Amino acid sequence: MISVGHSPDADDLFMYYAIVFGWVDSQNVTFCNVAKDIQTLNRATLKGEYDVSAISFALYPFVAENYALLRTGVSFGDGYGPKLIKLKGKILKKSFKVALSGEHTTNAMLFSLAYPEARIVYKNFLEIEVSVLNGEVDAGVLIHESILNFDERLEVEREIWDIWNELSGGGLPLPLGGMALRRSLPLTTAIECEEILTKAVRVAVNNKRILSQMLLERGLIRVNEKELDTYLNLYANDNSITMSEKEIRAVDKLFELGYKAGFYPQQIRACDYFIPSEYNRLRFS
């Protein structure tokens, strides 16, 4: 039984639930899944709790020794992403207090690079908007579906996408969420897991309308049908099936920025940590 951790936000559910609904299966591998917020999954991966888990890309260098990086189930922003929001008309000082969704998230790392003097507190992503509205913090970074529909008393101070463009030099998508697989799994099992998860994302994308309706009917999604369609177009699409060369370059740039800023003890390259999917072909040819 392979344990899979994924977030409860719409893109992760959409990309995984083709397996739950029996549209994709395997005679050799059986999955069990649990839904947790992304920072909880990041911490769980640091502890090695799940065989496969959704993670923030910014976390990966910390777990690369024990987890391989999967090519599938990825979420990138391209012209969009998390949003730094505040009350309308509020002027932020250099040392403003901000709520972020977790210290190992990609948005937290990029925010820290752009606002080194800000005072950061970490909260569940569902609590951030309320914390800004009640004055507990001066600003907050909204992620997931929260970026689509927030209170009219709030406004966007800055897009994390713009910070990424400035830091990366532009021309690359923003790496947000990926998936990692425990290295202690047998290689043939690891390869099959990635293949099944990839099929699940492909089947989901190719049957978007049907799967979306099934998720909505079961009350698994926090947004309405129109917002779900918008959100999936952003974060669960053809680009989520398997990482492109451009997306790999973007992940490498994120790791480079983190290393140069002192977040990571060494600089790594994504392609050195993928599962060698060619193994079965070479072994059984």
Could you please describe the fold and organization of this structure?
The protein has 285 residues and is of the alpha/beta class. It is 39% helix and 19% strand. The protein is built from eleven helices and eleven strands. Strands 1, 2, 3, 4, 5 and 11 form a six-stranded mixed sheet that branches. It has a five-stranded mixed sheet with strand order 8-7-9-6-10. Helix 1 crosses helix 7, helix 1 crosses helix 8 and helix 4 crosses helix 6. The radius of gyration is 19 Å and the shape is globular.
Give the key terms.
285 residues; alpha/beta; D-Maltodextrin-Binding Protein, domain 2; 2 domains; 6-stranded mixed beta sheet; 5-stranded mixed beta sheet; 11 strands
Secondary structure layout plus pairing:
Layout (H helix, E strand, L loop, with lengths): L1 E5 L3 H11 L10 E5 L2 H10 L4 E5 L3 H4 L3 E3 L5 E3 L5 E5 L9 E4 L5 H9 L4 E4 L5 H6 L5 E4 L11 E6 H9 L5 E9 L4 H20 L1 H10 L7 H11 L9 H16 L18 H6 L1
Parallel strand pairs: 1-2, 1-3, 7-8, 7-9
Antiparallel strand pairs: 3-11, 4-11, 5-11, 6-9, 6-10
Helix pairs in contact: 1-7, 1-8, 4-6
Continuous helix count? 11
Q: What's the helical proportion of residues?
A: 25-40%
Shape: globular
Domain module tally: 2
Would you tell me which CATH topology of the largest domain applies?
D-Maltodextrin-Binding Protein, domain 2
Uncertain regions: pLDDT < 50 for 5+ in a row? none
